[in-house]
UniProtKB/TrEMBL annotation:
Residues 28-152 form the Pyridoxamine 5'-phosphate oxidase N-terminal domain. It comes from Paenirhodobacter populi. InterPro entries: Haem_oxidase_HugZ-like_sf, Pyridox_Oxase_N, Split_barrel_FMN-bd. This is HugZ family protein. One of its GO terms (cellular component) is cytoplasm. Signal peptide: none annotated. PANTHER family: CELLULAR REPRESSOR OF E1A-STIMULATED GENES, ISOFORM A (PTHR13343:SF17), CREG1 PROTEIN (PTHR13343). It comes from the Bacteria. SUPFAM superfamilies: FMN-binding split barrel (SSF50475).
Length: 258
């Protein structure tokens, strides 16, 4: 395959910072990335070369790797098997004018998930999208993970940045083996505890809904309810179960649960 430079916009045309409003681009990008459940997925048509765009569910692995489902017979899956280059666009939706909202575009290559990672990824995906049980068991189910090579954030009017890199979306898992190994058990225990979920819901802004924890990593945890998702960031990195229990207790949750 021909090599390519993963550039979204020409970096030799810098943004005029005198026209930009100040904002923390890294925090805005990470929060939008982790709390979004839908993305526009663009692949390259294997015959014409034209971009082909569709909407898909977005799941995020603990290390910050984007992941999505695709049926093997779908056009975008067949496109990716011929050319793995891909773009994902994420927007903060809900308003009447998307140009007033945050938007994040990622580019990279999408590759089928290795068989030894499928079960854990499917379980995490199912927690995030409970109705996915209707299609995850199909024989031609494919899961693709995206190796992000470039990104661009538009934070809203006068809020643009070219300074972000893929590393800004990543979560380091090294030294957090205890937390990662027991992720499923800890999520189950929290979801079985009304006081723990109430404390987390309050931390997420007190938004109503039947919230459930869907994913857990050293930087934070993800909550989902019908039609909504929230990211809760830990004040500092948590690498083990005692640290997680202490955090939940610190926000008004039980000292023990499950």
């Amino acid at each position: 395959m021909t090599t390519h430079t993963p550039v979204i916009t020409p970096r030799d045309i810098p943004i005029d910072t005198s026209l930009a409003a100040p904002f923390d681009a890294r925090i805005a990008a990470r929060d939008l990335f982790r709390s979004s459940r839908v993305a526009a997925l663009a692949t390259l048509d294997r015959d014409s070369g034209y971009p082909y765009s569709t909407f898909t569910n977005l799941s995020i692995e603990p290390d910050g790797t984007p992941l999505f489902y695709a049926a093997g017979v779908s056009l975008h899956a067949r496109n990716l098997l011929a050319d793995p280059r891909v773009s994902l666009s994420i927007a903060q939706t809900g308003g009447l004018d998307v140009l007033n909202e945050r938007r994040l575009t990622l580019v990279g290559t999408a590759h089928p998930l290795p068989p030894d990672m499928l079960d854990r990824a499917r379980e995490r995906y199912r927690r995030r999208f409970p109705k996915s049980a209707a299609y995850l068991g199909l024989r031609d189910t494919r899961m693709f993970r995206v190796a992000v090579e470039g990104l661009h954030l538009n934070g809203g009017p006068a809020r643009n940045t070219d300074d972000l890199t893929p590393a800004d979306l990543r979560t380091e898992l090294a030294s957090a083996e205890d937390l990662c190994r027991h992720e499923v058990d800890e999520i189950r225990r929290i979801n079985d505890s009304r006081p723990a979920l109430a404390a987390l819901s309050a931390r997420a802004g007190g938004v109503r809904g039947k919230w459930r924890v869907t994913s857990l990593d050293p930087d934070g945890l993800d909550l989902a309810a019908e039609g909504a998702a929230r990211r809760i960031w830990f004040p500092s990195r948590i690498i083990d179960r005692p640290g997680l229990h202490a955090f939940i207790a610190s926000i008004g949750g039980p000292t023990s649960y499950g």
